[in-house]
Amino acid sequence: MEVQQVLHMNGGVGKTSYANNSLLQRAVISTVKPIVDASIEELCCTLFPECLKIADLGCSSGPNTLLVVSDIIDNIRNTFQKLNRPPPSLQAFLNDLPRNDFNTVFRSLPGFYKKLDEEPEKKLGPCFIAGMPGSFYGRLFPDNSLHFVHSSYALMWISEVPKGLVTKEGEALNNGNIYIAKTSPPAVFKQYLEQFKRDFTVFLRSRAEELVPGGSMVLTTMGSIKSDDPLCIWEFVGTKLNDMVLEGLIEEEKLDTFNMPYYAPTTKEIEEVIEAEGSFILQNLEVFKNDWDSYVKQADSGLDKKTRAAIFATDIRAVGEPILASQFGEAPMDDLFRRFEADVLDHMERENCQFINLVISLTKKR
Amino acid sequence: MEVQQVLHMNGGVGKTSYANNSLLQRAVISTVKPIVDASIEELCCTLFPECLKIADLGCSSGPNTLLVVSDIIDNIRNTFQKLNRPPPSLQAFLNDLPRNDFNTVFRSLPGFYKKLDEEPEKKLGPCFIAGMPGSFYGRLFPDNSLHFVHSSYALMWISEVPKGLVTKEGEALNNGNIYIAKTSPPAVFKQYLEQFKRDFTVFLRSRAEELVPGGSMVLTTMGSIKSDDPLCIWEFVGTKLNDMVLEGLIEEEKLDTFNMPYYAPTTKEIEEVIEAEGSFILQNLEVFKNDWDSYVKQADSGLDKKTRAAIFATDIRAVGEPILASQFGEAPMDDLFRRFEADVLDHMERENCQFINLVISLTKKR
Questions:
Q1: Which stretch of DSSP H or E encloses residue B48?
Q2: What 3-state class would DSSP assign to B138?
Q3: Predicted ipTM?
Q4: Residues 6 or more apart from B216 whose CB is under 8 A from it?
Q5: Beta bridge partners of A282
Q6: Does B140 touch chain A if contact means CB atoms closer than 8 Å?
Q7: Nearest-CA residue of chain A relative to B51?
Q8: Which end of chain A is more exposed for a tag (fewer CB within 10 A), N or C?
Q9: Is the confidence at residue A1, as pLDDT, over 60?
Q10: Do A99 and B93 touch (CB under 8 A)?
Q11: Helix B305-328 vs helix B233-246: angle between axes, to the nearest 10 degrees?
């Protein structure tokens, strides 16, 4: 499996599209906003760029894509008003893998620019929004060409499924699971951790070359308390796939040889890679936790359990479907997410099911 | 009609897609290559950029999109080899209107990069290809941020259909035609010329702000000998639409109120706008002419007349269909281009049917 070919959110604007089912990611962006604000403000006050150049890595395709840019524009305007200086122009690069649905993002840009023009109090210098397709596990921009890098809910997608999870002899190490699970042997955990370390190191090194000295990053990713803790959503999806294997609906071998290109690191693992890579100062590393469905409750506290489960299932489907369907086919997806929806909130009552989010603020050493 | 909403080549990679029917544009790019080469070489020898930043305006979506970038990469490599200097990195922005099919372009990038990597003799510094959606009749990039701008077969699309072609009272000036034709009154020509002057002035002013001093542009567009000469392909399409009106297949009013957002200027008109705008030195302005179907003959000299007509009709359809269908609907398109195909080569024998191409080389004043 070539991760670049299959890792993308559901495209378009239909019922199962990511664009219509990204409430979770929106809630995370809101929570992290004060940290992004502080970082941008610091940047504006120290670098005074004529044109602020930023990149959003793993921008996906939906309302959140331009939300980040919009928040940053608000912030720059406020900061420069406080400084009593003319605001800079802005060049924003929206990055995602080449199979991301950039067309939908681009088609929403005329409306976005129009809204900016209609709110003169939001007026910056000119604002230029470009798309930059490619993997952030490698170089994306010229040397010293960016001031700020943002990434939300993207870095947990690693560049490839660790090769060692299936031995050269074809033996699958992580039978019956699609990610690190309680029943996974230690070798599985080790393979994932090593892949994460390699990937995150390449990520940091690439960004270090691209950012100007003093430039900064705010990265939000899914994390874990201990690397093998039992709360991951993909472990739960794995149990449903396992049920379908037991009922003969999915071939056992297909499940055994499939693993998600995903890793949720601990704060300690993050800190160690940053330290070892050496280009960045870690300004801040925050952890916040939420029950799986708390963002749904937050958006509408009046929803009953059944409705909450349906929304949550659709949101996870929008994220996971392309990659799961690449292994198991489109056919079992309806059944899989029906099972997910039917059981997920009961499961939450039985086990401690939380998203753990890590927010990492970094500054490139001068 | 909002030109931004309807002006794009046929998307995707299907039978009537622009991607599969852009041989004409390819032939033009090949013809212009020596002029682009000279311009890039001059640039490399005078500016010595660490990262060469270029933009292709009106890149469309098809094999030609990356052909231009590929040619420029070859050229930079050769030039820097001659200079015995390490080659710069390259940041290339592919620009088109937001409704262009960028997804198809972006999905071909991994293969493009892979090919570059496999040809070490083609190796530059790193090469970064981004998409920049937006109208080139306005700002697209920050101040002083580009070294070279290329545009091929895009500037003949003006920003809007001249408003004066239908009077405030609803009277259509260009009855029975969709572009300047022999039977068009002088007011039609005047409206088009004024729109062109406004648009090309905005284009030059925008690029002047974006290019570094000494930066350059090579622009290829369709031109005319006299502004009202009778050779334009859209005049011919107009006669076919007129036939369909006479047969009751298209409403007369629909044809009378429709005009193409297109203008093919003379060299004199081009020179006058450049002179009046004042930011650029005109280095070179070349005219070359080709029979409508000569690019088809060139690609395969063994094709019979019927096959040549079919290829030519499909190529023009790939360009014109979205905008024509926005006025006349999808339904009459098959019929329209069948008529086009049936008559076009006979028409060429009766009249002098040529594409006139203008190649404009400009340098921003220092």
A1: none
A2: coil
A3: 0.87
A4: B39, B42, B43, B147, B148, B149, B283, B361, B362, B363, B364
A5: A362
A6: yes
A7: A142
A8: C
A9: no
A10: no
A11: 70
Per the DSSP assignment, residues forming a β-bridge with B95 are B57, B132
Q: Number of C-alpha atoms within 13 angstroms, CB side, residue A355?
A: 20
Q: Determine the 3-state secondary structure of A330 from DSSP.
A: coil
Q: Which domains does chain A have, with CATH numbers?
A: 3-364 (3.40.50.150)
Cα–Cα distance measured from residue A291 to residue A345, given in angstroms and rounded to the nearest whole number: 10
**B106/A102 Cβ within 8 A:** yes
Q: What is the pLDDT at residue B29?
A: 77
Interface test with B, best of A97, A103, A205 (most B CBs within 10 A): A103
Site from A91, A96, A106 to mutate, B interface, most B CB atoms within 10 angstroms: A106
Token pair for B146? 């580009």
Residue A16: pLDDT over 80: no
What pLDDT sits at residue B195? 94
* 3-state per-residue secondary structure call for B295-363: HHHHHCCCCCHHHHHHHHHHHHHHHHHHHHHHHHCCCCHHHHHHHHHHHHHHHHHHCCCEEEEEEEEEE
Query: Which tokens is A94 given?
Result: 């929206």
Task: Name the packing angle between helices B23-47 and B305-328 (round to 10°).
Answer: 80
C-alpha B333 chain-centroid distance: 22
pLDDT band at B120 (very low <50, low <70, confident <90, very high): low
Euclidean distance between CA atoms B161 and B191, whole angstroms = 9
What are the pLDDT digits (tens) for A144-153?
A: 999 999 998 8
Q: Helices (DSSP H) in chain A: which residue ranges?
A: 3-6, 23-47, 63-83, 102-107, 109-118, 186-210, 233-246, 252-256, 267-277, 294-299, 305-328, 333-350
Higher pLDDT, B113 or A27: B113
Q: Which amino acid is present at A8? A: H
Residue B67 corresponds to which tokens in the numbers above?
């052909």
Residue with the bigger pLDDT between B192 and B340: it is B192
Residue-wise pLDDT for B241-278, tens only, equals: 888 888 988 888 888 888 889 999 999 999 999 999 99
Q: Is A138 on the interface with B (CB under 8 A)?
A: no
Return the closest-CA partner of residue A204 out of A216, A192, A193, A188: A216
